[in-house]
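[Automated response] Your request has been received and processed.

Submitted sequence:
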Amino acid sequence: MLNTKASRTVPSVGARAAILAALVAAACGVAVLGLSAQGGPLSLHGSVYDSTGAVLPAVEMALTNDRGIKWTTVTDGAGKFEFDPVGPGEYEFEAYMAGFTSYKKKVTLEGPKDWNRIITLQVGNLEETITATAQRPKQVAAPAAASGARVRVGGNIQPPTKTGDARPVYPESMRAAGLEGMVPLEVVIGKDGKVIFARVVSAQVHPEFAKAAIQAVEQWTFTPTLLNGAPVEVTMTASISFRLVD
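Generated structure:
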């Protein structure tokens, strides 16, 4: 105010417009810096590989936010994917492809690096169902005493070709007692196509049925499961059913 040389005139329309533009640009710059620091909204992108490091085209991808809004896309021939720009927050990220275990994970998008994702899908599980039958007894005998057996589970995939089969033998004590049952098993097939081990995945199985099912499955053989030409181990979910027929 004490500067007698300072201009006291009202700025012209052009000058006021220039000042306003400068203020808007400054505000936008601050906003951009803020978004950059938060890391969004940006295009969520990345690549999908198998366990050998080869890319996977045609993988179905899905992204769902905490309000249930869902985005979908598919990987291209180079295994790459890209979603439309999404902002920071919590999301459910999914990837599906036949023959591989489905990928589902909760992700948080915060910093810029969070919008770049690398996914490796693992070979899925096989599934096979076998039924063993026996003649129903005319007289029912007392069943054999049970001793516990507990183990865990498996999943799904297109099976390799079975080259050697062994049918389960119906336990005579179970047949005589008129008992039937289902034995769910987890079976690991080695790189050479031979069964490495088999185990029951339910506590609700009579040990006589479990023993007969495992003895049969351990004799199975398969062609090696190949992933990009290399043999890999796979897990099979096998269901062995013991049924009586009249």
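Summary generated for your ticket: The domain at 125-245 is CATH 3.30.2420.10 (TolA/TonB C-terminal domain). Residues 37 and 59 are 31 Å apart (CA to CA).
If you did not submit this request, please reply to this message.
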